[in-house]
Design brief:
Layout (H helix, E strand, L loop, with lengths): L1 H34 L2 H6 L5 E13 L2 E14 L4 E12 L5 E12 L5 E11 L2 E11 L4 E4 L3 E5 L2 E5 L1 E5 L4 E5 L3 E4 L8
Antiparallel strand pairs: 1-2, 2-3, 3-4, 4-5, 5-6, 6-7, 6-8, 7-10, 8-9, 9-12, 10-11
């Protein structure tokens, strides 16, 4: 009888120690993922697809934050190295401390290059300027925003329409091509 109680007590203590070990390991993994959310992607087995809700992704280069993406949901494919986002909002950080805000219905990021594409009611705002288009592409290496579709841009003293546009976020210079037409007040300087 005494040996059964002893075996039961030892089993109970071992069970508690094993459970405590799992809890401690889980806590340390939680802290690791909380401090560096990108580690979650690294922990996913190859070939796995995942779906996440309310996502925030930050791109940093040489210690400087370049942009932050927020979305209501995301789906990640390890096979294609792409993340697809819904209800996308991106904040680009400029060298002069300014910010450019981009939003659209859907977005895709190549997780290997950080190149991005946003489609559907795309709206870009900087200071008092608003740009509307259906599709915008972001090249992370060059920091260029390119719209291969018609753009409309408006500000306090101008309205402009063009078939295509490219903006260099580093220099804040824009190139409009195709059929370009609009109204610019002579006193206004157009910048992006």
């Amino acid at each position: 009888m005494r040996s059964k109680k002893k075996i039961l007590l030892i089993s109970l203590v071992l069970g508690i120690l094993i459970l405590a070990g799992f809890l401690v390991r889980g806590y340390f993994k939680y802290r690791e993922f909380r401090e560096n959310p990108a580690k979650i992607i690294e922990a996913i087995p190859e070939g796995t697809n995942i779906v996440l809700g309310e996502v925030r992704h930050t791109a940093v280069r040489e210690g400087r934050k370049e942009w932050v993406l927020e979305a209501s949901s995301a789906q990640y494919s390890e096979t294609t190295k792409e993340a697809v986002f819904n209800d996308v909002k991106v904040t680009f950080f400029m060298d002069d401390g300014g910010q450019v805000y981009l939003e659209g219905q859907k977005g895709t990021i190549n997780t290997a290059s950080n190149d991005m594409q946003v489609v559907g009611d795309v709206r870009i705002e900087k200071d008092d300027q608003t740009l509307l288009t259906e599709k915008i592409e972001y090249d992370h290496e060059t920091r260029y925003l390119t719209s291969p579709s018609e753009v409309r841009i408006a500000g306090r003293n101008f309205d402009l329409r063009a078939d295509r546009m490219q903006v260099d976020l580093a220099t804040e210079k824009a190139l409009f091509t195709g059929a370009v037409e609009g109204r610019i007040d002579a006193a206004n300087q157009l910048t992006m």
